[in-house]
Inverse folding.
């Protein structure tokens, strides 16, 4: 308000009318906010924008398995009727709750910038009790893109520990102590770390297979990094000639990346 006072004075306003002018501006702002939040439109817009942003990510990256899907409690004809009548989807009873892996809810408010931005917070609680929270700020038609991107990375990215079928064998991704993927200065140190948790370093073939799966299909991409192998060897995918499998001494790298498997 003090900034508005200065601007009005510099524009030549009569000081005696400043309070009245400021009150008029405040009333205008309040009227616009009431119009913007009237009815049941904003929450539906934000929900639809979140689903659209996730669909766009899945269409672009094409993972084989979709880890985020939304549960519709009503059959399609009831859903169509509710949409026609501008109602939200139906309720959940106890039998329906048993089919869910997680519940999501959110809040939104107007950002203090007075530029029409929203501050949106989304909370997710999975069946194990763990909660995830995401927040973003932006225009109503754009703010959910940021949250949708965070959500996609969180739930679609490769999880540790997990198991992957590789040919006739099952490979268990253990990760590194404390983190999924770690780095060290020597392949020998990485090998000792995996042995300390009753695991081992992946072979070059296993690294390659996991890289082909990709980050969104239970794999781990190897490009752009040098990876530790057993017996002081390394895998350098960006140095294919004559071979990406080399002695550690032939590759100049300050950090060797690794994860452990069984």
């Amino acid at each position: 308000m003090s900034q508005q006072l200065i601007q009005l004075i510099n524009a030549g306003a009569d000081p005696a009318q400043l309070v009245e002018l400021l009150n008029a501006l405040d009333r205008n702002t309040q009227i616009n906010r009431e119009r913007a939040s009237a009815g049941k439109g904003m929450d539906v817009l934000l929900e639809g924008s979140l689903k659209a942003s996730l669909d766009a990510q899945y269409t672009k990256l094409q993972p084989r398995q979709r880890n985020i899907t939304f549960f519709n409690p009503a059959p399609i004809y009831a859903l169509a009727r509710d949409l026609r009548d501008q109602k939200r989807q139906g309720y959940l009873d106890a039998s329906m709750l048993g089919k869910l892996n997680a519940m999501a809810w959110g809040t939104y408010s107007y950002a203090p910038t007075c530029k029409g931005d929203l501050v949106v917070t989304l909370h997710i609680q999975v069946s194990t009790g763990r909660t995830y929270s995401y927040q973003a700020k932006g225009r109503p038609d754009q703010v959910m893109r940021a949250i949708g991107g965070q959500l996609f990375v969180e739930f679609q990215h490769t999880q540790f520990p997990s198991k992957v079928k590789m040919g006739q064998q099952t490979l268990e991704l253990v990760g590194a102590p404390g983190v999924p993927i770690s780095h060290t200065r020597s392949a020998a140190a990485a090998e000792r770390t995996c042995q300390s948790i009753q695991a081992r370093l992946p072979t070059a073939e296993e690294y390659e297979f996991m890289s082909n799966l990709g980050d969104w299909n239970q794999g781990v991409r190897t490009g752009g990094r040098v990876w530790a192998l057993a017996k002081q060897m390394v895998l350098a995918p960006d140095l294919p000639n004559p071979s990406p499998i080399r002695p550690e001494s032939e590759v100049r790298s300050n950090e060797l990346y690794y994860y452990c498997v069984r």
Summary: Helices lie at 2-10, 18-37, 41-61, 76-84, 94-97, 143-156, 187-196, 204-213. The longest helix spans residues 41-61.
